[in-house]
């Protein structure tokens, strides 16, 4: 797995495209770094930039970007709706793949050190990179904002983690942190009242509001024994929120940071804001995402809203995303482009072309070409994917059948299982070709000396095992799809029984075809025991598939 981290600096400039371009040009100048998103806001006078790459290159790009921001942004002239205390206000690092949170925190501290030593920037570390518990929360680090920064730096308790402990009027200070994936999410209201928007924000945010009695809005502040105000927590964990009015849209918004979307999801936050807004006579009209979001969050939202309608969730990712966008109103203020807003899709843009991304005609043509790959293994996986997709289709149709409303969840569960099966088989189309190419590469290794010959033999053996494991997995998944197809043949809607039958034929063909691949690749194994084990496992799967196919086709015959 590639070692990748994401960097999401927030620059205190959202109105001058030339300044923003100068900063992002520095980021793009670093080899290996990919600029994913640039999201300026005129009202907030702030631009959120997202880029990703290997840790060392990301740190280099961040140093260059912060240095450019220091040259071009004058905080003494800055004003905007968003809390801020520096030209580069915050610069968090986020682990994406192959890097732990602990490692990311170390990279954040290295970035902070370089900003302090090389640029002379005053830096506070927060979240997982914090030097003490009191500095974990960004709001605590940034308290008083730019206007209160000079006084805060005079306090020994708030000596910066890196850089000078003196106030720089142009630059202010920068918070560098390491955190989980944060979703910046705004919910639009049918009001222009910042006061009402703030009231809703206080209702939902984890911090809540200061406790007052007897009236929660106008009563006396309740204090503890030390005289500090007590707080009444809001309804959503891992959520920070404020209300504001956005002049360019003419609406008030609840602006939220969802800091742990595995605990409080996008759709959970949206639904809760809807409920709290309704109690105050305000209606939610839509929402917007600032920056990027993981694919899983959008798919979970799509499934959530389909379940509320008692509809099957085993539909394509594209359909789930479409449902999520419509339900959340993500396109109310501007078009929502999944290829530009979902992080996995953005990263895929420069990825090498895959077989599964070809048209059907293109895949057939590539198979028919003189190249030995794709071959029978990839075709077996593709046929298996079509079989599982047919079973999924029958489940989806049955879930929506008139008169079967009470059974929607039963068929939805089958459809969701089928989607997982056909998606895995689709992935195995390219995996089989990759495994074959790995064998070819191992055979091309030099074999002049004894050491080279030994290394080459070991590489060929390892690659051959990989070329056996992939078709074995095709067999296992295609066999599992026969369970789905059997259930649809027996219990799905009658008019789709033939589709279940065709799916069973595809699944059996996938199992048999992949078994041929196992046998021919196993013949090249030097390890006799491993060869016999692979062939024996394949024979067992093939026999089970033959029996299940017979059962499915008998069930189909009974219903035709």
What's a concise summary of this model?
The chain has 560 residues and is of the alpha+beta class. 51% of the residues lie in helices and 15% in strands.
Number of strands: 15
* Number of helices in the DSSP assignment: 17
Sequence stretches where pLDDT stays below 50 over 5 or more residues: none
Looking at the structure, the CATH topology of the largest domain is Four Helix Bundle (Hemerythrin (Met), subunit A)
Largest sheet: 7 strands, mixed
The CATH class of the largest domain turns out to be Mainly Alpha
Please, what is the average pLDDT? 94
Kindly state the percentage of residues in helix: 40-55%
Radius of gyration, Cα only, in angstroms?
29 Å
Strand content: 5-15%
Distance between the termini: 49 Å
């Amino acid at each position: 797995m590639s070692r990748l981290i994401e960097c999401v600096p927030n620059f205190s400039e959202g109105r001058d495209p030339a300044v923003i371009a100068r900063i992002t040009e520095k980021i793009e100048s670093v080899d290996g770094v990919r600029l994913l998103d640039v999201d300026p806001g005129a009202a907030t006078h702030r631009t959120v930039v997202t880029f990703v790459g290997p840790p060392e290159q990301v740190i280099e790009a961040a140093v260059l970007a912060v240095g450019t921001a220091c040259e071009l942004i004058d905080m003494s002239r800055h004003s905007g709706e968003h809390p801020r205390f520096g030209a580069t206000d915050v610069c968090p690092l986020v682990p994406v793949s192959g890097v732990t949170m602990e490692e990311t925190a170390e990279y954040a501290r290295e970035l902070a050190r370089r900003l302090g030593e090389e640029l002379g920037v005053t830096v506070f570390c927060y979240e997982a990179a914090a030097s003490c518990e009191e500095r974990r929360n960004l709001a605590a680090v940034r308290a008083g904002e730019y206007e209160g920064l000079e006084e805060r730096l005079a306090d020994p308790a708030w000596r910066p983690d890196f850089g000078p402990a003196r106030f720089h009027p142009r630059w202010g200070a920068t918070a560098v942190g390491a955190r989980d994936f944060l979703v910046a999410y705004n919910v639009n209201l049918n009001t222009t009242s910042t006061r009402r928007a703030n009231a809703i924000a206080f209702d939902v945010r984890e911090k809540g509001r200061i406790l007052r009695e007897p009236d929660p809005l106008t009563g006396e502040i309740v204090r503890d024994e030390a005289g500090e105000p007590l707080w009444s927590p809001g309804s959503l964990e891992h959520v920070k929120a404020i209300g504001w009015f956005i002049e360019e849209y003419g609406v008030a918004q609840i602006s939220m940071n969802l800091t742990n979307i595995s605990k409080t999801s996008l759709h959970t936050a949206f639904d809760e804001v809807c409920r709290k807004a309704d109690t105050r006579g305000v209606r939610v009209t839509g929402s917007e995402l600032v920056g990027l979001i993981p694919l899983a969050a959008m798919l979970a939202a799509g499934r959530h809203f389909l379940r509320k309608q008692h509809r099957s969730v085993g539909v394509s990712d594209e359909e789930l995303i479409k449902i999520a966008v419509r339900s959340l109103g993500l396109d109310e203020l501007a078009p929502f482009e999944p290829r530009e807003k979902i992080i996995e899709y953005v990263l895929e843009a420069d990825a090498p072309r895959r077989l599964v991304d070809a048209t059907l005609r293109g895949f057939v043509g590539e198979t028919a070409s003189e190249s030995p790959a794709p071959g029978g293994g990839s075709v077996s996986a593709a046929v298996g994917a079509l079989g599982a997709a047919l079973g999924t289709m029958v489940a989806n149709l049955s879930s929506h059948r008139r008169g079967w409303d009470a059974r929607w969840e039963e068929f939805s569960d089958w459809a969701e299982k089928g989607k997982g099966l056909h998606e895995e088989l689709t992935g195995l189309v390219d995996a089989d070709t990759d495994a074959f190419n790995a064998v070819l590469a191992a055979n091309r290794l030099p074999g002049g000396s004894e050491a080279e010959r030994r290394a080459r033999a070991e590489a060929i053996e390892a690659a051959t095992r990989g070329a056996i494991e992939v078709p074995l997995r095709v067999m296992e998944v295609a066999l599992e799809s026969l369970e789905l197809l059997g259930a649809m043949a027996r219990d799905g809607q009658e008019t789709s029984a033939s589709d279940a039958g065709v799916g069973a034929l595809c699944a059996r063909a996938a199992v048999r075809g992949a078994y041929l691949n196992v046998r021919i690749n196993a013949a090249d194994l030097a390890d006799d025991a491993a060869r016999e084990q692979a062939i024996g496992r394949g024979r067992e799967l093939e026999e089970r598939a033959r029996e299940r196919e017979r059962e499915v086709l008998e069930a189909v015959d009974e219903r035709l």
